[in-house]
Amino acid sequence: MSADEPSISGELVLPPDSCIIDGKGEFVASGVTSLVELFPNGDIIKTPRDNPFRYCVQDLSTEARIYQMLGEHPRLVKIRNWDSTEHTMVMEYMPHGTLKQYIKTHYEDVSRPLQLQWARQAAEGLQLLHAFDILHCDVGPHNFLLDASLNLKIADFGGSSINGSYASVCPGSRYRAPDPEWRPGKPPSSNEDLFALGSVLYFIFTGKVPFSELEEDEVASQYKAEVFPDLSEVLCSDIITLCWQQRAGSARQIYETISRLCVTGNV
């Protein structure tokens, strides 16, 4: 025990939302909220981290509540079990990892039809959330997972907003809408999710994050000035523009528009 760890009678005292993690399987990933491990049977388990800067147990409980609200859907990872006592969640494993990882390593091999499929599925996943008054609040390629058939599933709802509740996360600067009226505690809006969706679509079609040549703070300044990356040769440029200008309407409208493009091939 280090000298700065709190103790009573020589015993370590943890914050009330913390847990001590015993290894349950093969390590897969570790985020700010949870540790992800792979079971021998092919499922994964998410266990809340001991993170003094996050209410990790609360975040996992929020995620479980959202899954219970949404039920099963093709755009959602299947939940095998939620243990409300241990605050652990067992889920199906997504063998191709995140959209972010996959595009970084396989972009040159991704066909135009597959790009359009991912764009449509990303919008479909977001419109499912919005239909239940849930705002994701951290839409990005790191929070879309790919199954064995390379179908896209939206994931990670621990910091999301339900019915206008406080969101404990926000997107990175390349996925964050500029908001001159922002203030601490301001409720999130669907336009913020849709702005981020525009950046996800840009990433899908170009293999690059918006303004990949700029530093994070420079990106925020460009967005604030309503300056966006060139879209002259980017698929679905009109949709991305509407998202970035916060005039997209709804995730359902984006989903329906991309669905028509997938059918007609008129891109």
TrEMBL record:
<dbReference type="InterPro" id="IPR011009">
    <property type="entry name" value="Kinase-like_dom_sf"/>
</dbReference>
<feature type="domain" description="Protein kinase">
    <location>
        <begin position="1"/>
        <end position="267"/>
    </location>
</feature>
<dbReference type="InterPro" id="IPR051681">
    <property type="entry name" value="Ser/Thr_Kinases-Pseudokinases"/>
</dbReference>
<protein>
    <recommendedName>
        <fullName>Protein kinase domain-containing protein</fullName>
    </recommendedName>
</protein>
<dbReference type="GO" id="GO:0004674">
    <property type="term" value="F:protein serine/threonine kinase activity"/>
</dbReference>
<dbReference type="InterPro" id="IPR000719">
    <property type="entry name" value="Prot_kinase_dom"/>
</dbReference>
<dbReference type="Pfam" id="PF00069">
    <property type="entry name" value="Pkinase"/>
</dbReference>
<dbReference type="GO" id="GO:0005524">
    <property type="term" value="F:ATP binding"/>
</dbReference>
